[in-house]
Amino acid sequence: MEIIVLGSGTSHGVPMIACECAVCHSLDPRDQRTRASVHVVMNGLRIQIDATPEFRVQALRESIPAIDLFILTHGHADHILGMDDLRRYCELRPDGTLPVYCTEEGEGRVRDIYPYALVPRGEQPDGYARFDLRRLPARLELPQGVIESTLLPHGRVETLGLVFTEAGTGRRFAYYTDCKTVPPAARDLARKVDLLLLDGLRPSPHPTHLSIPEALAVVTDLAPQRTFITHLNHAVAHCDEQLYLNNEAHFAYDGLKIVL
Ligand SMILES: [Zn+2]
Ligand SMILES: [Zn+2]
Ligand SMILES: [Zn+2]
Q1: Which of 59, 206, 248, 254 has the highest CB neighbour count under 10 A?
Q2: Residue 120: predicted pLDDT
Q3: Can you give the C-alpha Rg of the chain in angstroms?
């Protein structure tokens, strides 16, 4: 299984517009954080999780050749506003349509923002995005592996927490972004995974996201092989990783690739 971090930043991105802080002016490329998204290749199956406002730039940067399946974790702007750029990946598919898995909340947002992507083929010219909206079940079994999902509290909405288990290798990857807590069922699902990519917005508490200390407490409980903290804002510089994470985890960064 291969995991490509397309973006590791929070909704503002880093640098943030009109900010004079040191991290927003850092010369370390790992402090340039586009909005949070990952691309997973599981036994050749290409799964795209979320499409940020920078999705087109991210896809070009990583030369993503195709997408077989798209998962929207939730309908917030920083995760949904790049979905129009999925049009190229729709075009590359034999039926011109991309399966889009989401929650009821995510589906409502897709219907509001992209109604033109939900009309049947033939009702508008090719070249537009076309989505086949589906609810993500708790367990989606595919020939390439299993995708399990759980709901994570995130203010007024719930985010899909995702655990991928690759067929054959048995490798497991959990992606828990945008969450204030990780409830017991979600902890059981992700316990001792090979790789955990976890929300950890900033050092101080936040009403709808895990702080870095809160994220580390989750890491201690879940005991994953490796952990990266994502959805970071401009409060932390990548070079201060040890200071904040004490070798218990690492900061994710745009373009990070992990092969399990
Ligand atoms: Zn700043
Ligand atoms: Zn969110
Ligand atoms: Zn977000």
Answers
A1: 254
A2: 86
A3: 18
